[in-house]
Structures are given as structure tokens and as C-alpha cells.
Amino acid sequence: MYAEERQQEILSAARAAGRVDVVTLAEQFGVTTETIRRDLTVLERAGVLRRVHGGAIPVERLGFEPALAARDEVMTAEKERIAKAALAELPQDGAIIIDAGSTMGRLVQVLPADRELTVVVNSPPLATALATRPSVTVLMLGGRVRGRTLATVEDWALQQLSQLHVDVAFMATNGCSVARGLTTPDPAEAAIKRAMIASAQRSVLLADHTKFAGNYLARFATLAEIDVIITDAGLDLELAADLAAAGPEVVRA
Predict the structure, then answer these.
(1) How many angstroms separate the Cα of 90 from the Cα of each of 111, 131, 184, 248?
(2) What is the per-residue burial (b if ≥16 Cβ within 10 Å, else e) of 104-119?
(3) Using CA atoms, how far apart are residues 144 and 137, in angstroms rounded to an integer?
(4) In terms of C-beta density within 10 A (0-12 exposed, 13-18 middle, 19 or more buried), how is residue 77 classed?
(5) Contact 199/218 with Cβ under 8 angstroms?
(6) Is the four-CA dihedral 107, 127, 190, 65 of positive or negative sign?
(7) Is the pTM of this model over 0.90?
(8) Which distant-in-sequence residues (6+ apart) come within 8 Å of 76 by Cβ?
(9) pLDDT digit string (tens) for 66-81?
(10) Cβ(94)–Cβ(201) under 8 Å?
């Protein structure tokens, strides 16, 4: 097993159990405790785990979310596959919303150059990446920019969204479960995400399999409000079936 694969399994285990133990992980993976400590250091530097005595805790258990730059460094191959699979949901022409987030950055990178689209975003970095494309008209939602996620939130963005209708909203989430639906740590971002879904004919969730391991403070959608979930092959088949039974089509890219 490659170190990156082991680190992703460690992260998934931490999110599922709330904590991981160095000795237990070393026995599970058949490596030394020093190797596991190096893995935990890598994950801590990526902003997804916090080291504690004898192990580590996922950052969401500590009441905060990792910054965008940190999230962009994990699950990179999975996010790229998810973004490419999402292209099947694009209209031939028309209007779409692209939510803020690291997977959405991958989607922006792979958007076809020959597709005439109006793209609504609430992320200044995504707006900048799209602005030079001749076939794309970019609408940037105003509002307060959250430093952690670089997403615009609050009344200015909500007012603009209330006047829009798009073909597809490509959504991100911090957490997703059958019981709680789609959740995020920040109520202001949850309000924007809720308004994005309300303004769209169809909603497509892009989320790697680690996002299905926990719930966060603010819910912004039920599974019945999502038409398609695009995730990666790491999502458990039984969980995928449970998600699909709640409403959306589930695609494992």
C-alpha cells in the first residue's frame, strides 16, 4: 500500500470513529509506529487531522473546518475523476451554478472550451479562473468573503440568487448522510448553498467518499433535493444503495 492510500484510510477511520490510535493503526497496517506518526504529521499539515497524545482527532470534532488550500491537497485523484464524471451533467448551453470548494476547482479546470455557458459562482478564485474563457459568461455573487473557504456569503449573495434560475447547480458539501442530508459547519454558507439549490432546475452533488463519514452543524439540503451524487469508487456499495434509496442517482467515478 502506498503512503497516500494508507493516509486516506487513516483519515476515513478517524472521521468514522472520532479518533485514531497510533499503536492500533500500526498493527492494522503492518507498519511501525514511526511510520504512522509520519502519516499523522502529513495529515495534520494538510489541515484534516489534529495530533493528540497517542493518536489524532479529525478537525471537525474540534469545531472548525480545514482551509481550502488544505482540502485541495487531499483526495486529488478522486476529485479529478469526480469532476470529469460531472461533465455528463452539463447542459449543451445554458446557465449553471458552481459552488465553492476544492472539487469545484477541478470541475472548472475540465469544463469544455467549446460549450457556451453562463456560470454563476460565489468563489473569487473560480471566477478568476473562468473569466478568461471566451465561451463562458461569469456571474460573480457579491457578499462577505469567508477567509477559510474563499466563498461569498450573506445578504448580497442571497438577494442575487433569489432572482436567478439555472439549469444545474453543482454543489459541494462537508458532510452527507442518509439521516441528516447535506451539512456544513457554517450557517452562512449553508444559507447560500440552500439558495443555490432552490434556484436550480437540477442539483448535482460532487463529493469524495470521505464526505459521507459525518455530519456538521448546519443542514442545507435533504437527499431528496439532490438529483445526482457523483463520488468515487471508495464509497461503500451498501451506503451508496442507501443514499440512492433516499432519492438521488449515485455515480461512483
Answers:
(1) 9, 18, 25, 17
(2) bbbbbeebeeebebbb
(3) 22
(4) exposed
(5) no
(6) positive
(7) no
(8) none
(9) 545 445 555 788 999 9
(10) no
Q: How would residue 27 be classed by pLDDT, with cut points 50, 70 and 90? A: very high
**If 0-12 CB within 10 Å is exposed, 13-18 middle and 19+ buried, where does residue 62 land?**
exposed
CB 200 within 8 A of CB 167: yes
Q: Which residues of 82-98 are buried (b: 16+ CB within 10 A; e: fewer)?
A: bbebbeebbeeeebbbb
- Return the residue matching grid coordinates 477541478: 106
Q: Which cell numbers in the block locate residue 34?
A: 514511526
Residues 6+ apart with CB under 8 A from 21: 54, 55
Nearest to 125 by CA among 80, 74, 67, 167: 67
What is the percentage of the chain residues whose pLDDT exceeds 90?
69
Residue 178 has pLDDT above 70, yes or no: yes
Residue 40 near residue 10 (C-beta atoms within 8 A): yes
Task: Write down the residue that cell numbers 442530508 correspond to.
Answer: 181
Q: CA 71 to CA 45: how far, in whole Å?
A: 11
C-alpha cell at 139: 456571474
Residues in a beta bridge with 68: none
> Alpha helices of the chain — where are they, by DSSP H?
3-17, 22-29, 33-45, 68-71, 76-86, 102-110, 124-131, 155-162, 187-198, 237-245
Which residue has 495534520 as its cell numbers?
Answer: 44
Helices 3-17 and 33-45 pack at an angle, to 10 degrees, of 80
Q: Tell me which amino acid residue 21 is.
A: D
DSSP 215: -
